[in-house]
Amino acid sequence: MSMNLKIIIDFLFLLFLYLFIYCMKWKSMDRDIFFVRTIMYIYIAFVFYFTLMPVITSLLFVFDHPYVPMNLVPFIDVLEKRGDYLRQIGLNVMMTIPFGFLVPLASNKKVTFPKVIIYTFILSLSIELIQPFINAIRSSDITDIITNILGGIVGYGLYMLFKPITKRVLVRIKG
User: Taking the model in full, what pTM does it have?
Assistant: First the structure.
């Protein structure tokens, strides 16, 4: 089976989840919350695309390769100048900026700065722990978690900076 077909299967599954579970659950909420949560769902789907996919077709082969433990030496690639470490750091920070921005918008409750850090940590740790199970080529690294959290912090900072503007835009969506 081609890689594209495997990824399409994952996206079809995510579309099914959205249409028949999340969309039904969120429809009773205000249009602005529904809109932001839909954007968040699409964002998370693309995070999965870049970090984990294909998942469903890989589940049968989870135990067919050795699990490589997480690298726990922060920024070892930078210190040893291995690979394209600057690009990887930049991509990891950029990947979670939308998360830090969208989490407070998507919640019905007030989301504080420490909560955004915790949520970003949970997202990043989950990805890093699952990656080596899905594919032997993927690895997990403490640097990725640190840089993902940094991205969440930047995203939350942008949220706080643009909070008055986003509130006005969301009020227009409501109306």
Answer: 0.89
